[in-house]
């Protein structure tokens, strides 16, 4: 399969594609007759794709698919990739400052198997959801031109070239940035209040983000404050109150060394009364090796990380080990795999860590998820996280009251933790999903 990669801002993409034109056509004339049959498509019985509107499978779980089908209505949309002539596969990853980088793959099948390419789009962080949605629609509409030009429907198109000069000042390499790529965000993440006759709940989260991302460096400074209060009122008894404070700071500096290696220095601070942590300060350098080039990380990544660190911990209460503060040395090894493809995705890994003063104080974490289309209409989704826990150094001495346990105000000893989920779905019936009906 021939793949052509294109990476640019939205303006450059539009200029590139709109050199060929903007589509104007009547959808009613282009929808193929088999759209109305409601039967499964059989390639031996249906005319070749060049004689009808191509069948498109839109593979995007976060897209506004109703809007896309309404705005781009000169193709047929099908419910399964096995029925498609064109498979549109969309992924996204967050960037600094809350913006999103999108990758759109257009995979030609059957008659169009020689027409496949990828486009990258970086959404402006100030975009509204509607603006980003419209810009993605514009990319999809323009990218379908090469396919439509190979069909007998090409004579239904009118082309208009928007003669706009390229603004070279928009080239990222030539931008004069007075902020030097720093992005700041002060946020009040969430404030919630719940009132009942015998219960009050209050929860709030706020903080500051400061991030700087370049090709060579990735920097972060993020202080945060979290406060939770619960009061339960009882007849003829004093009310039960629970206050949980979780405040801290996450910061790091990561240096890109080459296409496979990076190194970083990480620091964290946290105070958390429900985990018996008055103060915990940790500093740990680390290195990461990527078995595949970092440029492929949005679709395929296999990495190995190693961290070694120092921690100072001051506890609210004496722990089960008879200490109120201590200095700790530990290290961690993490291996992970993340593969995202049109037919599904696999991610997972293993994390192992222990303290140097006692190797028995250790933890192993196994995590993974898989989503796959087994066959037409049949999909499987599975995820799991399993931890073998032998490193709960902050457990306070003494017995925990029932109130502390129910209100989660005190950490409990455990040897393991398991969370898992599985979902199987099977879709059958009409092959087509062209109709948009948003009532109710």
Largest sheet: 12 strands, antiparallel
Class of the largest domain in CATH? Mainly Beta
Q: How do the helices and strands follow one another from N- to C-terminus?
A: EHHEHEEEEHHEEEEEEEEEEEHE
Structural class: mainly beta
Fraction in beta strands: over 45%
Q: Could you give the distance between the termini?
A: 43 Å
Across the major sheet, the strand order is 7-8-9-10-11-12-13-14-15-16-17-18
Spans of at least 5 consecutive residues whose pLDDT stays below 50 are 1-46, 166-173
State the total count of DSSP E strands: 18
Helix content: 10-25%
- Overall number of structural domains: 2
CATH architecture verdict of the largest domain: Beta Barrel
**Average of pLDDT:** 80
- Examine the coordinates and then state which fold CATH places here, giving the name of the CATH topology of the largest domain: Porin
Helix count, per DSSP?
6
Shape: elongated
Structure explained in plain terms:
This protein is mostly beta strands. The protein folds into 2 domains: 161 residues, no CATH class; 234 residues, Porin (Beta Barrel), CATH 2.40.160. Helices cover 10% and strands 49% of the residues. The chain contains 6 helices and 18 strands. The strands form 2 sheets. A 12-stranded antiparallel sheet has the order 7-8-9-10-11-12-13-14-15-16-17-18, with no helix packed on it. A hairpin with a 5-residue loop joins strand 4 and strand 5. Helix 1 packs parallel to helix 4. The radius of gyration is 27 Å and the shape is elongated. It starts with a strand and ends in a 14-residue tail after the last strand.
């Amino acid at each position: 399969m021939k793949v052509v990669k294109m990476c640019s801002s939205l303006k450059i993409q539009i200029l590139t594609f709109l050199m060929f034109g903007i589509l104007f056509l009547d959808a009613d004339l282009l929808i193929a007759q088999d759209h109305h049959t409601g039967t499964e498509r059989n390639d031996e019985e249906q005319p070749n794709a060049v004689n009808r509107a191509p069948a498109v499978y839109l593979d995007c779980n976060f897209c506004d698919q109703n809007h896309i089908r309404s705005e781009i209505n000169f193709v047929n949309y099908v419910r399964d990739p096995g029925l498609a002539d064109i498979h549109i596969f969309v992924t996204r990853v967050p960037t600094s400052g809350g913006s999103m980088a999108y990758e759109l793959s257009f995979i030609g099948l059957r008659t169009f198997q020689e027409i496949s390419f990828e486009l990258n789009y970086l959404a402006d962080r100030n975009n509204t959801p509607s603006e980003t949605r419209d810009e993605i629609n514009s990319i999809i509409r323009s990218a379908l031109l090469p396919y439509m030009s190979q069909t007998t429907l090409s004579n239904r198109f009118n082309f208009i070239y928007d003669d706009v000069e390229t603004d070279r000042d928009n080239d990222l390499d030539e931008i004069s940035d007075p902020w030097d790529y720093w992005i700041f965000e002060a946020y009040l993440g969430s404030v919630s209040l719940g009132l009942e006759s015998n219960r009050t709940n209050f929860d709030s989260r706020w903080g500051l983000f400061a991030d700087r991302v370049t090709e060579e460096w990735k920097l972060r400074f993020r202080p945060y404050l979290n406060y939770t209060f619960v009061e339960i009122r009882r007849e003829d008894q004093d009310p039960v109150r629970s206050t949980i404070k979780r405040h801290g700071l996450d910061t790091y500096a990561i240096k890109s060394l080459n296409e496979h290696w990076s190194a970083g220095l990480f620091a964290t601070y946290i105070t958390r009364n429900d985990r018996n942590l008055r103060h915990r300060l940790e500093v740990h350098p680390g290195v990461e090796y990527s078995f595949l080039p970092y440029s492929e990380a949005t679709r395929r990544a296999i990495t190995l990380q190693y961290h070694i660190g120092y921690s100072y911990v001051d506890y609210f209460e004496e722990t089960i080990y008879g200490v109120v503060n201590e200095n700790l040395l530990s290290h961690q090894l993490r291996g992970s795999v993340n593969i995202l493809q049109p037919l599904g995705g696999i991610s997972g890994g293993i994390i192992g860590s222990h303290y140097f003063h006692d190797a028995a104080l250790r933890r192993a974490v196994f995590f993974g998820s898989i989503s796959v289309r087994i066959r037409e209409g049949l999909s499987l989704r599975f995820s799991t996280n399993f931890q073998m826990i032998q490193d709960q150094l902050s457990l306070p001495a003494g017995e925990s009251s029932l109130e502390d346990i129910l209100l989660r105000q005190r950490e409990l000893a455990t040897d393991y933790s398991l969370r898992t989920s599985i979902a199987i779905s099977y879709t059958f019936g009409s092959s087509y999903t062209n109709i948009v009906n948003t009532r109710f």
